[in-house]
Amino acid sequence: MALFQEIQAPNVKYNQPLGLFINNEFMKGIDGKTFVTTNPYDQKPIVAVHEATEKDVQVAVQAARGAFEGSWSIVTPSDRGKMLTKLADLMAAKLETIAATISLDNGKALSAAMFEVTNAIDCFRYYGGWADKVVGQTIDTDPASMTYTRHEPLGVCGLIVAWNLPISLLSWKVAPAIATGNTVVLKSAELTPLSSLYIAQLIKEAGFPAGVINILSGFGSIAGKAMTTHMDIDKISFTGSLAVGRQVLHAAANSNLKKVTLELGGKSPNIVFPDANLDHVMSWVNVGAFFYQGQVCCAGSRILVHEAIYERFLDMLKKRTKINKVGDPFDPDTFQGPQVSVAQFERVMAYIEDGKKAGATIIAGGGRIGSEGLFIQPTIFTDVRDDMAIVKDEIFGPVCTVHKFKDEKEAIEIANSTHYGLAAAVHTADLNTAFHVSNSIKAGTVWINNFGLINPQAPFGGYKQSGFGRELGSYALEAYTQVKLVRCWLAGPVFP
Ligand code: NAD
C-alpha cells in the first residue's frame, strides 16, 4: 500500500500521509498491517493507514533514544524553541487543511476543528517561548559550597492520546515535552489517525532532527500496550478513559516504573445561582453540555440549578437546544455533527434508555435524529437520583442531567458527589458565592461565569479519578523534567 494518497475533502484537496512517521520518514509497518479509518458522517471508509505493531514501537523508541542521546542533546534550548515556533507557522499556513483532516475521521464540525487547530498552534508557540526559559535554582547553603539545580529532560516520552481532540491533545503533549529537551513517540487514537499524520509531514520541514518526534497510528491493545510496557520509555503521558488509565498505571508499575501523567474523564457540574444572567448562562450551559456532541472530557454534563429559577431555567434550556444546527460537519453553520463511531453512538443511546428505565424524566431529546446516521438529539434529563448510571458515569454524548438545589451547601455537596474531579463551573453575580463555591469544589478547573475556556497558558488536569499531573501552562514543564541537584565543595577541610 502507498505511503500517501490524494484526498478530496469538501473544502480542500490534499495529499494525506498514510505511513508510520519514524526518523523523519514515512514508512510501512514491519508486519505489513493496515487499518481503515471511517468517516462518521456517512460511515464510509476514507482511507487505510499503516498500522504500528510491537516491532514498530521498538523501532520508534530506538529512533527517539538515538536522537535523545545524540543529535537532539546538542541542540540549544533556544533552537528547540525556534523549531516549535516554525512548526506553529507551518500549521497556521495549513490551518484549514488540518481542520479538514480532523472533521473527516472525527466528524467534528469544521468550525470546531478550526478552533482546535488554532488552539494547537497557540500551544506550540507558547512552549516555543518557554524552551529557553526553563531554569533551576542557585541555593546558598554555606560559604564553602556551590549548590544548584538543573531541570533536565526525562528522556524518551510515550504520548498516547484520545480521539476527541486529536490535534489539541497532540500539541498539549508534544510541545512541552520537546521544549524541555525530550524526544517523543506519539500514538494517535485508532479512530482518528489522519490529522496527526498530516502534522508529521511538517516536522522535518520545521527543522527537527530525525527521531525527535515519531508518530504512529495503531491500536491501544497492541501499539499502546507496547509503549506502556516498554523498558526504554521514560514517561507515558496518557489521555483517555479511566479504565485504560488504570491499565497504563499497572503497566508502568510492572515494567520500568516509568513516570506517568493521566488525563482521564469527567462528570463536571455546571452550577447556576438565581442571581446569574440567565441569557448568558444559556450559552455556556449549552456549550458545556452539547459542544462537539458532548464528546468532551470536561463536558458540563451535570447541571445544578437553584430551586428559585429551576422551572424558568428548564424552559430556556429546552428552547436553547433547538437552535443548535445538527448535520454535515463541513457545513459552516453546523454546531453538532455525528458521534464519532457506531460503538460510541450505541453506548450513548444505551445510557439514554437506561435513564428512561431508571425513572428519570426526559424534557428534551431522548432519541436519534432521523432514521440513519450517528446523530443524537441533545437530551436533557430531570428527576434524577445519585444512583442512576446517567448521573454517575461519563456518557460522552449530548446528554445532561439537571439537578435542583436549595442553597450553596447543597450545591457543593451535589457537585462533589462524583469520583471524577476534572472541572466545574459556577454562575453567579455574587463574588462571595463565586469564590466560596469554587474553593469548595474538588476539581482541577473551576470556571466562574463561563464554561470550557481552555488556554495553553493555563494548567488543565484532574482531581480524584480524573487523573494526575497537569497539562498546559508552566505546570506542564514539570511533567517533562526531573530535578538534578549539584553540590560543589569549594574550599576548606574535607568533611570528617
Ligand atoms: P480510551 O481510553 O479508549 O483510549 C485512549 C487512547 O489509549 C487511545 O489512543 C487508545 O488506542 C489507547 N489505548 C487503549 N487501550 C490501551 C492500552 N491497553 N494500553 C495503552 N494504550 C491504550 O479513550 P477514548 O475513548 O479514546 O477517549 C475518551 C476518553 O478520553 C474519555 O474518558 C475522555 O474524558 C478522555 N479525555 C480526557 C481528556 C483530559 O484532558 N482529561 C481529554 C480528552 C479526552
UniProtKB/TrEMBL annotation:
GO terms for molecular function: aldehyde dehydrogenase (NAD+) activity. It is an enzyme of class 1 (oxidoreductase). Its EC number is 1.2.1.3. It holds the Pfam family Aldedh. SUPFAM superfamilies: ALDH-like. Residues 33-486 form the Aldehyde dehydrogenase domain. It catalyses: an aldehyde + NAD(+) + H2O = a carboxylate + NADH + 2 H(+). Coiled coil: none annotated. It comes from the Eukaryota. The keyword Repeat does not apply. CDD domains: ALDH_F1-2_Ald2-like. The keyword DNA-binding does not apply. Keywords: Oxidoreductase. The active site is at E263. GO terms for biological process: acetate biosynthetic process. Belongs to the aldehyde dehydrogenase family. This is Aldehyde dehydrogenase. It comes from Talaromyces proteolyticus.
